[in-house]
Write a structure and sequence with these properties.
Layout: H1 19-29, H2 34-41, H3 45-53, H4 59-70, H5 74-78, H6 84-87
C-alpha cells in the first residue's frame, strides 16, 4: 500500500495551552507526581506546582532541565502551541 501525504488531514489545534500546562500534561502522561519530577530535576515541588499553575514562568533554563528529565525536546515545553503556518 502506497501512502501519500494527501491521504492525511492536518491536525487541528483544539485549544491553546501554556508551557506550564504542557509540563503538567507530559508529567502526568509519564505517570510522575510533582514530587517525583522534583526529585529527578533537583527542583522544589512547590516550584513545579507554581509553573504548572501559571503562577511562575518556566524560562529557558528550567525548560532544559524538565526536557531532559521528561525525555522531550525543550521546544515541546516552551512552545506547546507553535504553528508554523502562523509565522511562515
Amino acid at each position: 500500500m502506497r501512502v501519500n501525504k494527501n491521504d492525511f488531514v492536518r491536525a487541528k489545534v483544539h485549544c491553546a495551552i501554556t508551557p506550564g500546562e504542557s509540563l503538567k500534561m507530559l508529567r502526568e502522561l509519564q505517570g510522575l507526581s510533582q514530587s517525583e519530577l522534583a526529585e529527578m530535576t533537583g527542583m522544589n515541588q512547590s516550584n513545579i506546582s507554581a509553573i504548572e499553575s501559571g503562577a511562575r514562568q518556566m524560562g529557558r533554563e528550567r525548560a532544559l532541565v524538565f526536557a531532559k528529565a521528561l525525555k522531550v525536546h525543550p521546544a515541546v515545553l516552551l512552545f506547546p502551541d507553535f504553528d508554523i503556518a502562523k509565522v511562515a
